[in-house]
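Let's study today's protein:

:::
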Amino acid sequence: MTPTLKVNPPVLTTSAQQEETLSSELAALTVGQPLAASAAALAGLQSAAACSQCETVLETARDLLSTEMSQYATKLSSAATEYEKTDSAAAEALGKFAGPVRYETV
């Protein structure tokens, strides 16, 4: 038997907000700065070039991850909105068909 899927839109919304906050914090990290400083201190050595390359790789990875996290947050938020819209539409549709309940005594 397939397990029941349960969705809690407010939890999705909170998760989306937290994910967006983390994405912003990640984007603000200066992950390459220590490597840039090392490259400057090692000017003229092959190690300086290696530090510069690593700085570029780390900053690119940070930017990509931050972007992916932000996109994921957007998708979570959209999912929450769509679930709420679907639930509201279903409730409205059911309300149109639900008439007065008739009881019969046997």
About this structure: The chain has a mean pLDDT of 89. Helices lie at 9-28, 33-41, 46-97. Residues 46-97 form the longest helix (52 residues). The radius of gyration is 26 Å.
